[in-house]
Amino acid sequence: MMSDHDDNPAFNAARRVWLRNTAWAAGTAAFGAAAFGLPGMRAWADEAQKPQEPLKPLKLSWNASAICTAPVPVAQKQGFFRKHGLDVELVNFAGSTDQLLEAIATGKSDAGVGMALRWIKPLEQGFDVKLTAGIHGGCMRLLATRASGIVDLQGLKGRTVGVSDMASPAKNFFAVTLKKIGVDPDNDVRWRQYPAPLPGEALKKGEVQAIADGDPTIWTLRESDRLQEVSNNLCVEYANRVCCVLGVRGSLIRKDRATAQALTQALLEATGWTANNPAQAAAIFAPNAPGANVEQLTAMLKSHTDHHPVGDAFKKEIALYADDLKSVGVLNSGTNPQRFATACSRTCWPDARAVRLLRGEDQAVIVSFVAASCPTTLRTRGSRSRP
To answer: What's the pTM?
Structure first.
């Protein structure tokens, strides 16, 4: 409500003078009080002169060639790590998952980003690495030639599928989905291993009738060879299931939980930014994917889901994956999925009821936690699967 003075130039000029003088007086009082040792004013002056806390150094391992890890360079480039007090060194890790988890568990790296279906089996072996959040959903696909006649997973019965390795997330995922529709993934389907990018060549030669892998490799083959996408990891019950995850060294969480929380929050904010700025995120990631242009990488990111669970919701999804892998013999028959998920995941999120995520051009939205005591799935308003 406007007062009668708001349109009075003389009053406004006088008010500006008064405010300026008051501010000067307050500053003088703070300086003088600090000099004479008055406690309240000294605290004010000390706070104003307090140096910034140094950034916490941290090593984060990632697969630089996988488009699903795009939030990692985004967090670096857009300043999300620094915003949360972290000086992050990115380590491009090309070794086996066992080697990666061992590096994290033994302190050679502090955390890593990878695919849940790649990490769960090694975590069953007891590596001291705890999963703190999901990064996104989608990025695995199964393709066939249009001439093959394979239009659904049932069509794989009696056929051969090419994969990058026998423990790949794509191989595990499609073995699980085949099992669920009554096709025995061990006896009804043959799997043949080819190092990337040779599965595409094997398909052309007729050595296999379908291929399964992750983006960007599989997406690029689909477009360049005009292949048919038979299935992906966003179908049916997996439409809202996480794909890639953040894992943090267990000893870091126990000894410096604030740093683990800061890393988790920074990556989740970068994930939200990536989902809402796919073209900019693709441009940031592009130097790591020489086989695809920015337009193609943007399309890949748009096809992934803005789904990044934390807390109980995340733990539930890990338990579901553990149950899936147990059904196809990847996990031991004696493994309890719920206990496993509890043991290998941790809630590393501040206690605040809500968190602000950067959206678009500096537009902030509030994302509320569903549960009062423990945060569950963190989803931005309007987030959805992108078919």
So the answer is: 0.76
